[in-house]
Amino acid sequence: MDCIFCKIAAGQIPAKKVFEDGEIVAFRDINPVAPTHVLIIPREHIETINDLEPGHAAIVGRLHLAARELARQEGLAERGYRLVFNCGPEAGQAVFHIHLHLIGGRKLSWPPG
Ligand code: AMP
């Protein structure tokens, strides 16, 4: 399958991985928008949030638990951080393998652009 995030998960192309286990992989975004910008993905190829099914509840939960732990490791737990899934064209989704953005380390504005 020609999916860049599947290839990162499989170790076929390089990435700065910060966590991985049998189900999920986390790595630093190649074009960070903040001092901390980590992408947390399931190894399973799921194209968009629209494609989630009830059986994915546990893996989606695990993405968030990994984000919580990585935020703590990055020193963001008390400062604050943002977790984002972009879904579809108007949200600017560019890679069609779901990924949870963990963004922090600077003051983030709201609403997002
Ligand atoms: P999204 O707009 O939510 O689909 O975000 C895709 C993100 O993937 C962007 O922030 C990109 O900078 C990031 N990205 C694309 N290719 C790579 C890569 N090879 N390694 C790390 N991050 C990547």
Walk me through the structure:
This protein is an alpha+beta fold and 113 residues long. The protein has one domain: HIT-like (HIT family, subunit A, 2-Layer Sandwich), CATH 3.30.428.10. It contains two helices and five strands. Strands 1-2-3-5-4 form a five-stranded antiparallel sheet, covered by helices on one side. Strand 2 and strand 3 form a beta hairpin. It is globular and about 35 Å long. The model has no long low-confidence stretch (mean pLDDT 98). It binds adenosine monophosphate. Adenosine monophosphate binds next to loops.
H-E order: HEEEHEE
CATH topology: HIT family, subunit A
Bound molecules: adenosine monophosphate
CATH superfamily: HIT-like
Number of domains in the coordinates? 1
Q: According to CATH, what is the class?
A: Alpha Beta
Ends distance: 32 Å
Low-confidence stretches: none
Helix content: 10-25%
Proper CATH architecture:
2-Layer Sandwich
Largest sheet: 5 strands, antiparallel
Helix-strand category: alpha+beta
Provide the β-strand percentage band: 15-25%
Radius of gyration: 14 Å
Secondary structure tally: strands: 5
Mean of pLDDT: 98
Number of helices, where a helix is a run of at least 4 consecutive DSSP H or I residues: 2
Q: Outline, from the CA principal axes?
A: globular
Strand order of the largest sheet: 1-2-3-5-4
